[in-house]
Here is the input.
Amino acid sequence: MRILLMVMTLLLTFGCATTSPQSAEEVSAEQVFNQSVWNRAASDFEGTVVVVRASQFTGIACTYSILVDGNEMASLDNGQKVTLNLIEGQHVISVQMGKDGCGHSYAEHRVQVSPGSHEELLIEVGNFDGLTIKPY
Here is the structure.
């Protein structure tokens, strides 16, 4: 019983760990599928959206796909981020888990991008609400 309580405490503690946009590591070029919107200065008609994957024990071995308006942009590993410059307008930023045998989960968040705007979104797996993507 004591060991079970210790394991549950560890899972709850590490399952809730987060990563700030400043401490997250930017994805590598090999993880980006649309490099025209990735990690560069925004034009006069774009805003920046940074998607951060929390560094968590829960789902640590799974890769998450980041999609913008249904188009796959990048894959994120634990504790990574991707910086995207998107044209002004409303966009659906979504995260999908399930390409590597980790089950299938999906979450999305709508953002309104305006020229010069900066939005930070956090992806995490909660103990009760599953996979989420929300403003940081």
